[in-house]
Specification:
84 residues; alpha+beta; 29% strand
Amino acid sequence: MTNMYPQKSSLRSLVDKWLAPTPTRPLRVTRFGRTARGARYVCIEVARFDGPVTIAFFYHEEGAWGVFPLNPYLPRATRMAKVS
């Protein structure tokens, strides 16, 4: 079984990867908190020519941020397994 998060990904690195903010297209946090099941999340928006784009980032208990929340119904080992 391989860990899905071999290195912890920071929120900043994912924001840069997915939204690519620049000085002329700054980002802003539009919402943050916890889901009904207690997962931490942050919604970040960046302006684009055709309108704003917002992505929700979720904190995973392994110490990494991702664009998908963990599935609380899967056993922990399954959540960490890499699908080949």
